[in-house]
Amino acid sequence: MTRIIADISVSLDGFVTGPDPGADNGLGTGGEALHTWVFSEDPDDRQVLRETTARSGAVVLGRALFDIVDGPNGWDDATGYGAREVGKPAFVVVTGSPPESVRLTGLDWTFVTTGLSDAVSTARARAEAASKERGRDLDVVLMGGGATIGSALDAGLIDELTLHLSPVVLGAGTPLFTGGAPLTLTQRSVIVTSTATHLTYDIS
User: Fold this and answer.
1) How is the chain split among helix, strand and coil, in percent rounded to 5?
2) DSSP structure class, residue 34
3) Nearest-CA neighbor of 119 among 70, 62, 68, 64?
4) Looking at CB atoms within 10 Å, which of 18, 140, 157, 189 has the fewest?
5) Which tens digit of pLDDT belongs to each residue from 79-111?
6) Is there a contact between 164 and 141 (Cβ–Cβ < 8 Å)?
7) Are 194 and 38 in contact (CB under 8 A)?
């Protein structure tokens, strides 16, 4: 069964970017430290990354994050989603209007202008089609940004929340939680490495 999974790295003080993120400043000042675990050679970090990307039938992201990853300092063949681990899933972008052009033309992009719920439904259909093609269950992964995941949590669209808690205090930036609806979580797993604590919760 296809599940909807929010998966994001977060600082100890609850930020998913540093201050002043944008197309020219990626994850904001100091924000790259959130993803140290992604490039770690620790076998547990590698396994977490491998499992996350391998189960991704489709990936949802907001327009601000798309502008970063598709920008001049964004993804390339070495640093894109799952670049070191698996093939490339479909990507679904929530946006008010599609971009005039896309730099990363080698990826499968769908732009949904009718809201987050429709974007998740589109991604679910893509993930289910990929599941049939590959003969195994694949999921929808919401990779960010923080506002997109926060809105999805508030709307009750998420089945599972995975946080990669990085040992850094950013002081400011984009918060993951902004006082939205209360959540009941069931802790499913904790994996501790030198670069992150990987926390997985089921959402009731």
Assistant:
1) 25, 30, 45
2) G
3) 62
4) 189
5) 777 655 556 799 999 999 999 999 999 899 999
6) no
7) no
Q: Which helix (H) or strand (E) holds 61?
A: strand 56-62
Strand bridging mode 108-112 / 197-203: unpaired
Spatial separation of the C-alpha atoms in residues 5 and 199, rounded to whole Å: 13
SS3 151: helix
How many whole angstroms separate alpha carbon 56 and alpha carbon 86? Answer: 10
Amino acid at 112: V
Residue type, 200: T
Helices (H), the chain: 43-54, 63-69, 116-134, 146-154
Rounded CA gap, 203 and 158, in Å?
7
pLDDT tens digits for range 113-157:
999 999 999 999 999 999 999 899 999 999 999 999 999 999 999
